[in-house]
Amino acid sequence: MASIALANLKGGCGKSTLALNIAAGLARRGKVALVDVDPQGALAHWAEWAAADIANLRVLSGLKSLHDAKGSFDHVVVDCPPSVDWSLTGKVLESVEMVLLPVIPSPLDLWATNDAAFAVEKARRSNPALKAWLVQNQAEKRSALSDAMAKVLNEQMLPLLNTAIRRRAAYRLALLEGKSVYQMGARGREAVLEIESILKEVFVK
Ligand SMILES: Nc1ncnc2c1ncn2[C@@H]1O[C@H](COP(=O)(O)OP(=O)(O)O)[C@@H](O)[C@H]1O
Ligand SMILES: [Mg+2]
What we know:
Elements: E1 2-6, H1 15-26, E2 32-36, H2 42-48, E3 57-61, H3 63-69, E4 75-79, H4 86-93, E5 98-103, H5 107-126, E6 131-136, H6 147-154, H7 169-176, H8 189-204
Parallel strand pairs: 1-4, 1-5, 2-3, 2-4, 5-6
The structure holds adenosine-5'-diphosphate and magnesium ion (MG).
C-alpha cells in the first residue's frame, strides 16, 4: 500500500488536478482510493458527474475515510484543502508516506511554499519517513524558465521533482468532461506522459 498526498498552502496551484490524474494513473496498476479531504469537495463533485467511470478508482471524502481506505486499497491519493484548513493538512501529512507540493513557478508562489516546508518538518516529528517533493505545475516550456527563476526553484527547502507539469488544455478539459487525462485519447497523450513521469520519479526515488 502506498499513500501520497497533494498539498500546499496556495489555492489554485493544482492539488486537485494532480491528485485526480495521479490517482487515475495508479488505477491502471491497482485499486485506488482518491480521498478528498477538502471541505469544498471539488473532487467529490467531479466524481458525481464523472462521464467515464474509471475502473479501480473510488472517490471518498473526509479524513476518516483516509484511515479506513488504508487497509483495503493498493494506493491512496489524498487531495488536501488550501491554507485555511492547514491543521487538516497537518493531520494528513502525519499519516501518509509521501507528499507532493505543486508550485506554479513564480516568485510569489515559491515564497508561499516555505510555510508548507515547515509543515512538512513538523509532520516529520511524528512521521519521520515522510517523503516530500515540490513539483512545478502550469510550467512554461523549459526554455522559458529564466535563470533567476531556476535559481529560486533550486534554493527551496524541499527537493524539486525533475518532471514539470506544463500548462495544457487537456488538464482542464478532462475535468470538464468528467475524466482524467488517461481517458482523453490523443488529446491527453502529452499530459499522460507527464503524470507517468511523476509516478516513475516518486516510486523509484
Ligand atoms: N497543468 C495545468 N494546465 C492547465 N490548467 C491547469 C493545470 N493545473 C491546474 N489547472 C487549472 O487550474 C485551476 C486550479 O487547479 P486546481 O487543481 O483546482 O488547484 P487547487 O486544487 O490547488 O486549488 C483549475 O481550473 C485547473 O483546471
Ligand atoms: Mg483543490
